[in-house]
Amino acid sequence: YKSKPNNNSLTPYKEFDFTSATEILSITTSSGVRDYGGGGYILELRGYIEDLKDKIVDFQRVRWVGNRTRSAILEFSVYNAQVNIFSTVTCVAEFIGGGVVPWYRIETLR
Prior knowledge:
- It is a single chain.
- By secondary structure, this protein is mainly beta.
- Helices cover about 10% and strands about 35% of the residues.
- The chain is globular and about 40 Å long.
């Protein structure tokens, strides 16, 4: 993942600007129902936990995820130093027909 450089956006939040897969050097995510081409609207969660909670509340208030959202994809990595293992986790919630179809994948490497 490569961060997108700051541009002169029309919105106060960079998270409302579409980011293409080539801008962030991303690949397609395959999930239970559809494949997603790697681009989209990105909410980065970095920093202190209280600041992240406030950020999530702000985005709930402005309805960042709404009735036109096809899916929400959460990706993160973890490292266990005791056993020297990295894992990447991909969680997908697909909004289909008024419901949510969950999907996940955990990949571990040493």
